[in-house]
Amino acid sequence: MSEELLAEPGWLSEEVKTGTTIIAVTFDGGVVLGSDSRVSAGESVVNRVMNKLSPLHDKIYCALSGSAADAQTIAEIVNYQLDVHSIEVEDDPLVCSAATLVKNISYKYKEELSAHLIVAGWDRKEGGQVYATLSGLLTKQPFAIGGSGSFYINGFVDAEFRKNMTKTETQEFVVNALTLAMGRDGSSGGVAYVVTIDKDGTEEKCILGNELPKFFDQ
Amino acid sequence: MSSIGTGYDLSASTFSPDGRVFQVEYAMKAVENSSTAIGIRCKDGVVFGVEKLVLSKLYEAGSNKRIFNIDRHVGMAVAGLLADARSLSEVAREEASNFRSNYGHDIPLKHLSERVAMYVHAYTLYSAVRPFGCSFILGSYDEDDGPQLYMVDPSGISYGYWGCAIGKAKQAAKTEIEKLQMKEMTCRELVKEVAKIIYIVHDEVKDKTFELELSWVGEVTKGRHELVPKDIKEEAEKYAKESLEEEDDSDEDNM
Question: Is the CATH code 3.40.50.300 the one for domain A19-207?
Fold first, then answer.
């Protein structure tokens, strides 16, 4: 009994991970990114409302997963690099530039870092694009999912994704995927953050727990 | 407008009383001693033409190139000290390569020319080094941004152009270039005109034989910078020679 009273709480010693669900999907004219909001340290929820969708530039965002500190730091560094780059070339940066910058850091420090960022955005040359940068790999995909919660929805996204959906259909697809993952993954939960990027601008939305769609829930 | 800069022209780190850096101006004179190079931008690409003077019959044809490839989509035509130009082409290649490595796509030409110009400019600041004795013209073609043409001179400044000329006959070449309606021409038409201009400005009396180096980048090459294929080049040279003869004939008629 006395040992339990003196035991340290888990969140003092456990690394803070964004055990997460993140998703990014292209549609005809842009991209939609989505994430949950739970940050865990072992068994404690350290932050239940964290926004894991981080801006890299006006029309380029990234979704964070893995170690919270590593992912945030990569995102901040790339945000700075893209700022300088876009001033030097006197133009908005391409999404592939943002993704390459993230990939370069992830690969160079792959032994020390443990973060997976999905980079997604819109540029005038290629429109909406999604890039996965897991541990230093770089691939362009029609959609990408990541984080611990993503394993539960692989089947769902493979079955339900269609190319060139409308903006609203894509937002619904993203919210459904997040809800299903949050329902089964202990490390994902809270609210759903959704960011939509197209040629007209960027729109951030937060969907509270009680507003999420309801699935079979006996 | 040449004046002697006695005393103020020994190093690039000295201004003259009337605000000139003579070393940089002398470097530009080195460019003016070299044979002519021109670059013209048209509707769907960029064409380069260089008048390569043949100083010895023993030279192998096609050697001592004055047009370089900087990355797949960028070409560089030079005038001035060839060794300086080769060194700068390596600088440009490294810039383009580093950009691709860091940002994942082709370097925009404006950015490349600004970076190389910055490098050239650095050598005009110190007495320990001399300025580069060459000017060069950079050209590229991109599906979204279209054709681009930039010129960098020894002072380290870079301008965008529709058409420009460097080297000994640059004034005459510029006059000929200004006669063209380049914005409405395609690369195929422009190749012939570029060859014609080089033939026109070539001085038969002072310089004997020359070799024409012709390259292009545009929609016709799918955005890759290449030497103009042999058959098109021969057609262009034939057109150039025939146009010269016509002008000679018309001169005789006037007499």
Answer: no
**pLDDT score, position B234:** 95
Where do the H-state alpha helices sit in chain B?
Answer: 22-32, 82-103, 109-122, 170-178, 187-201, 230-254
User: What phi-psi label fits residue A32: left (phi over 0), alpha (psi between -120 and 50 degrees) or beta?
Assistant: beta
CB contact under 8 A, B104 and A124: no
Task: Say whether pLDDT at B253 is over 60.
Answer: no
CATH code: domain of residue B77: 3.60.20.10
Rounded CA-CA distance A111/A132 in Å is 18
In a domain, B4, yes or no: no
Query: Which residues does A83 contact at the CB level (< 8 Å), separation at least 6?
Result: A57
| CB-based contact B108 A97, cutoff 8 Å | no
**What is the DSSP secondary-structure string of A66-82?**
EEHHHHHHHHHHHHHHH
Q: Give the integer Cα–Cα distance in Å for B184 and B42.
A: 7
When computed from its CA atoms, the radius of gyration of chain A, rounded to whole angstroms, is 18
Ordered DSSP codes for A145-209: EESGGGGGGHHHHHHH--TT--HHHHHHHHHHHHHHHHHH-TT--S-EEEEEEETTEEEEEEE-G
Question: B88 pLDDT exceeds 90?
Answer: yes
- The parent domain of residue B96 ranges over 22-243
Kindly report the pTM of this predicted structure: 0.89
Residue from A57, A100, A131 to probe the interface with B (highest B Cβ count within 10 Å): A100
Question: Is B250 part of any domain?
Answer: no
Task: Report yes or no: B12 and B123 within 8 Å, Cβ to Cβ.
Answer: yes
A–B interface: beta-carbon pairs under 8 A: 29
In Å, how far from its chain's centre is CA B218? 17
| Position B252 pLDDT exceeds 70 | no
Query: With an 8 Å Cβ cutoff, are A100 and B108 in contact?
Result: no
| B1 found inside a domain | no
The mean pLDDT of chain B is 92
pLDDT at B214: 96
Domain count, chain B: 1
3-state secondary structure of B113: helix
Question: Cβ A125–B144 below 8 Å, yes or no?
Answer: yes
- Asked if residue B189 is part of any domain, the answer here is yes
- Cα(A181)–Cα(A153) distance, integer angstroms: 6
Selected residue of B99, B100, B103, B110 to mutate for chain A interface (largest A Cβ count, 10 A):
B103
Burial class (CB in 10 A: 0-12, 13-18, 19+), A52: buried
Touching A: B residues 126-145, CB under 8 Å: 144
